[in-house]
Give the backbone structure.
Amino acid sequence: MYHLLLIIAILPVILLGAYIYSKDRHKEPKLLLIKLFAAGIFSCFLVLILTYILVFFMPFLTKEYTTMNFIEFTIYIFISIALVEEFCKWLMTYHFGYKNKEFDEVYDITVYSVFVALGFAAFENILYVFNIASIQVGILRGLLAIPGHVCDGVAMGYYLSLAKYHEKMGNQKEVKINKIKSILIPTLYHGIYDFCCFTESGIIVTIFVVFIFFLYSISIKRVKMLSEETMKLKIINNFCPRCGHKVEGEFCPNCGLKQE
């Protein structure tokens, strides 16, 4: 029974990780990916610390969520859960991925953020599945919760790739905007997901189905786009952001783009 539960808990993590990794034309170092996955696990403990701090300032967070009013419930979902978890994953992605010398193509940071998300999801999923000891719960989480974390990671990587691109172009305003988006957009996705899951209502179920379809669709499109454009959108210095050609002067000799 326990062996089956373990397989159900980690198999979606392996499959999704393999899918994201397979889309990377120039594979990232395996040691780095292991480090990112471990950082995702570590972020779970960081979440606990930040949650304790939040509870100190907002004691109502210890209440049963069914007894909270709408404002308390919204803060609980979007701040105490979604923002705290995504911020902790973002810290790990930024520290070990964004600043890493291996981050030299736009798709790289998506791989990094997803592997952090998978580390977090794997640890969380094992706790859930073994605590409840339910195969049905494990399967349901494998179809929804773990892909949800991956989609949040894709969104985080997408905006961090834009931040790095603008960083190399010297546009600091866009760098700040996209770094903020790399936290807020995954938080919004995560919050909507949890809000629907915690709310027992017929219309919410419909909204949840539509939202999941949207989330999976946009995430797949972003993965496809970034992985296919990785050769065209080099983000290292002296490479044209449009065509990837080596640039030595003010203009790209291949496509004529002026460097900013």
User: Anything to note?
Assistant: The chain has a mean pLDDT of 88. The helical segments are 2-22, 30-57, 70-98, 108-132, 135-143, 145-169, 172-198, 202-228. The two ends are 60 Å apart (CA to CA). Residues 55 and 62 are 7 Å apart (CA to CA).
